[in-house]
Specification:
Layout: H1 8-11, H2 27-40, H3 53-60, H4 64-77, E1 80-83, E2 87-90, E3 114-115, H5 126-137, H6 151-167, E4 179-181, H7 184-195, E5 201-205, H8 210-218, E6 222-226, E7 228-229, E8 232-233, H9 235-244, E9 247-252, H10 266-278, E10 282-286, E11 308-313, H11 314-317, E12 325-328, H12 331-343, H13 351-361, H14 364-386, E13 398-402, H15 409-418, E14 421-422, E15 424-425, E16 439-443, H16 450-468, H17 471-475
Helix pairs in contact: 2-4, 3-4, 5-13, 6-13, 7-8, 7-12, 14-16
Length: about 500
């Protein structure tokens, strides 16, 4: 047995250390009570990030399931919010000693949060998807949808995937026999795993997709940012980087950069293509949001048939639960990428691709996408009315709000969380740690109705104004919004 002290709790910030002597059965109820008592006493303040569940379980000597149930009860009570990639945070305190409502809106603490965080591609068309799913599951061969795909099913689903990619702008030849995976993130993971080695350099925008950044970090890839202007990535900056560094590939969302919403102009794309071709880069073109664009521009991949992989999927454009993506992969890379996808366990079971196939072959997916375009235009018009000083793009699922230079998007995000408002600050998307942080990404697609969006945006504006006026400094002690970086 080791004689060294267990210092896990010192190495990892334990923002909450309930006394073990106060723990009694039933443990779940007791932990909730201890948390509420510490909030009431001011020992836990809004914005505090709680310890990861496993670490807290070790500290208290209980199993992880107990902590998970306790956190769940706290979420139901409205005193805790949990985010998939960030952890769990104290939120919605009761009124302070002066009787002031710290949420700023007098909203019931059990109400749902004003969620403008995770990008969700609208719910309004899910009824069509439900009908197709119900029909499939009531069929005589429904049980086969939970097994493995037959060759006949694979051929039909590849044909449907090819049609979907053609709707995104690819030619029939370029879209032939696409790789089908469980969502665009899975396809991207397979491509990065199969075609890049640890230490390889990939160029990208200064602000780029958080999922790509996480994958690059896990695979020990070097991400180098390239400057942009109002037309997109600067070709001269990319060329300079390629001369200075051994750049292996480039990741781009040409139609709708996530988070900025910037679209690379047609003329800029043609120059970038020349730079990519000249330096032999492998282009990973993410077209997840391309089907929602009002005016189509041909994918860059068309001009780089042997140097580009085009990725697009259903979740972003058609239905949030339809985790089915299609990737047009050059034949020289296809076997490696397919092997990586199988190794990662990210090939789809038949059910979701079958639903996608039905929606594509019937033309319903195109109808859904067109309907979403109209809805997005109206939603983003609402955003423009509430934030008239901001540049608003009408055909994206999110807006990139510029804040005063003195404001940090990450700090504002934490403050807004205490008001039960969920947004993402610039720090989530930084490939360049020196880039400006005075931005917020606001998802206009997440609220289920336009009315709810309008209410949430109004709350957001009020929250930003309160933060700007110094309300946070007056109400909360210094350092109360700090949080560690350990995720649950």
């Amino acid at each position: 047995m080791s004689t060294h002290p267990d210092n896990r709790y010192e190495l990892t910030t334990m923002t909450w250390k309930p006394a073990k002597s106060r723990l009694f059965r039933p443990y779940t109820t007791c932990i909730v009570q201890l948390l509420e008592e510490d909030i009431e006493a001011g020992r836990l303040v809004p914005g505090t990030k709680l310890p990861p569940q496993r670490l807290l379980a070790d500290w208290l000597g209980v199993d992880v399931d107990t902590i998970s149930k306790a956190y769940g009860l706290c979420r139901e009570k409205g005193i805790l919010q949990t985010f998939r990639t960030k952890g769990s945070f104290i939120t919605l305190p009761k009124k302070d000693a002066a009787g002031e409502d710290r949420t700023g809106e007098g909203r019931d603490r059990r109400n749902a949060p004003a969620d403008l965080g995770e990008v969700v591609p609208l719910y309004s068309q899910n009824e069509w998807i439900r009908q197709y799913t119900e029909r499939l599951l009531s069929g005589a061969d429904a049980a086969e949808l939970f097994g493995t795909r037959s060759e006949e099913d694979t051929a039909a689903q590849e044909k449907a995937g090819s049609a979907f990619l053609q709707d995104c702008g690819l030619t029939k030849e370029a879209a032939e026999s696409p790789l089908i995976t469980e969502g665009s993130q899975s396809a991207l993971a397979a491509c990065l795993t199969a075609l890049f080695d640890p230490g390889d350099v990939i160029a990208c925008d200064r602000y780029t997709d958080e999922g790509f950044l996480r994958l690059a970090f896990l695979l020990h890839l070097v991400v180098l940012p390239v400057e942009s202007d109002e037309e997109g990535m600067k070709p001269s900056s990319l060329a300079f980087l390629c001369r200075e560094k051994k750049v292996r590939g480039i990741y781009l969302n040409p139609d709708s950069n996530n988070p900025t919403g910037l679209r690379i102009s047609k003329s800029r794309r043609s120059i970038l293509i020349k730079v990519i071709r000249r330096h032999g880069l492998l282009l990973l073109e993410d077209g997840s949001f391309s089907p929602l664009c009002a005016e189509p521009i041909p994918p860059m991949s068309l001009a780089l048939p042997d140097q580009a992989i085009y990725l697009s999927g259903f979740a972003s454009a058609v239905g949030p639960g339809l985790l089915t993506s299609y990737a047009a992969v050059p034949k020289a890379y296809l076997e490696k990428v397919e092997t990586a996808s199988r190794s990662l366990g990210r090939h789809c079971l038949p059910l979701l691709p079958k639903i996608a196939e039905q929606l594509i072959s019937s033309g319903t997916s195109r109808m859904i996408t067109e309907d979403k375009k109209k809805e997005l235009a109206l939603r983003n018009e609402t955003s423009g009315e509430i934030f008239p000083e901001q540049s608003t793009r009408k055909d994206t699922l999110y807006q990139w709000l510029r804040l005063p230079e003195s404001m940090d998007g990450g700090d504002l995000e934490k403050y807004l969380l205490t008001r039960n408002i969920i947004v993402f600050g610039a720090e989530h998307f930084l490939a360049d740690t020196g880039a400006a942080r005075n931005f917020l990404r606001v998802s206009t697609g997440t609220p289920k109705t336009r009315e709810q969006l309008q209410e949430n945006l109004a709350l957001l504006k009020t929250g930003i104004d309160a933060y700007r006026s110094g309300a946070m400094t007056k109400r909360y002690p210094a350092g109360s919004l700090d949080s560690d970086e350990t995720t649950a």
